[in-house]
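Re: that chain you flagged

S.,

Sorry for the slow reply, it's been a week of failed gels. I finally had a moment to sit down with the sequence you sent. For the record, here it is as I used it:
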Amino acid sequence: MTSQARFRRNLATMTGSITGSLAGILAPRREIGARSQAFDLLFAGALTFFLGLIGFAQAGFGGILGLGMLAPLVWRRSRPEPVFFVVSAVAVLQWLAGVELQPGNVGLLVALYAISVYGEVRYSRIALGIGGLGVLMATSRYWSGSDWRQQITMMVALGALVFGVWATGERRRTRGLYVAQLEERAIQAERDRDRESKLAVSNERTRIAREIHDVVAHGLSIMIVQADGGLYAADASPEQAKKALATIGDTGRASLTEMRKMLGLLKQDAQQELDPDQPRPQPGISSLPELIDNVRDAGLTVDYEVTGTPRDLPALLGLTAYRIVQEGLTNTLKHAGPGARTCVHLDFGREMLTVMVNDDGRGAGVAPSSDPGHGLVGMRQRASISGGTVNAGPKAGGGYEVIAKLPYNLPNGGGIQ
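Prediction finished late last night. Pasting the structure tokens below so you have them in one place:
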């Protein structure tokens, strides 16, 4: 490559770089509304008209330079950087031409304020440096014949004026950024509230679905067992068939009542917020004997044992223990087979309640399903919410066992095993 070709390439690269930089500077920095544009036009027009007239009255050429420092202020907010550099260039031309200070020099301060408020931070710092250099240039030209004390006084006064204008603009910029940050935080907080509300609705739907599953599955299991038993005993023992039908009716009515109570929670949530002392109609430990009697009436042999010193439990913990026992008995009715014996054991320990539901049926021999169903998942979720754990699976000697450990006091986190 010849030296001329390299020169052309370097010149093209330099030109492209300069063009890109100028394009970045000249590009509009912010969008402003029609009202703001009208105000900027009126403001710059007023300064140009009145101060321009004064400048023309003092000196013709100086008046033209004054117009050059005032007219660009129309774009001081949309293009603060090029406006400041154009006004500064006109001021330097005024200094080189030896023209005295004009009223249009006010445009320098207005442009400096605009770039410190609306311009980029790096250009704002450059503008402050240019303003300081302008103070030195003005002092050396316009007060060169004065006493050194007067020169220092004017230098300090002009420097304080330039820095004060720049600092005021920086303060407004900082305040504007702070307000914008607060607005963004408010918008984000509103988004978070909407997201939390949607999550709360989803969790509530899941809770209701789990509750309905527990009630319907347990009630239907008992009703199916009683219906099969009543059909079998209809001819040989009409009394047993009548008893089975009565149990089916009682179980259906009880399940329907409980399901209505749970669905009624949707309407009671608002009233619960107004009256937090109103109790929720949910079963607990005290309802277990009635549940076990219903299962016994369905033909399942159930032993109920309580060890330790019983205590009053929180409503959530009592409901969790009740649902775990209910689901365990329901699974026994479904999978244990005829003649199975079930044991429900509550152990009130020092720090936690242990709930055990086990049977000696054939549940262990049933092939596991690829879908764990809602029952076991529901038990684990309930225990996790209460800070406890649930283990469920076949026993070594046959049968199936569910063991739940529920702490009385909710720790920092619960586990699911």
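What I noticed first: The longest helix spans residues 148-233.

Talk soon,
D.
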